[in-house]
Amino acid sequence: MTPTRFPSILIPELAGAAPALAIDTGKPKLARPGPGNLADMTPHLAADPMLLPTRSAPARPANVHLVRLRGEYDALTSPDMLRAIRDGLATRPDVVAVDLSGVTFLGVAGLRVLLTMRGVAAADGTVLELVGSPPPIVARLLGLVGWSVLRSVPA
Asked: What is the pTM of this model?
């Protein structure tokens, strides 16, 4: 199978093969280090900075602000949603979790608030997450714009 060439990316055609993605850096390929310790990688590290070792630490719980929404959000009530989410963002958390469990209806105006506030949050370095178990009609509208709801609600 001949890969299709794109600028710096090789993507094999999907003719019966599992999809794969490989970055073509233009550099000669180096042999991978064996299953040893970090000392086995030293020659490779000097040759290719992309092979620098990484270290990980246990994740700290994120600074999460929970916004619980209840009721219907349409053109008349979406300003209430906007105010609640804006108040959550004002605390400068890492994550604003919007609990949609109590939302019985989400109109286009409410959806616009969620999408707008996601952009505002991202500009401030905050993640806006949707959590809870909204009714199917709300989940379906969110799915139409490619936004899924996380099922767990932070404590």
From this structure: 0.59
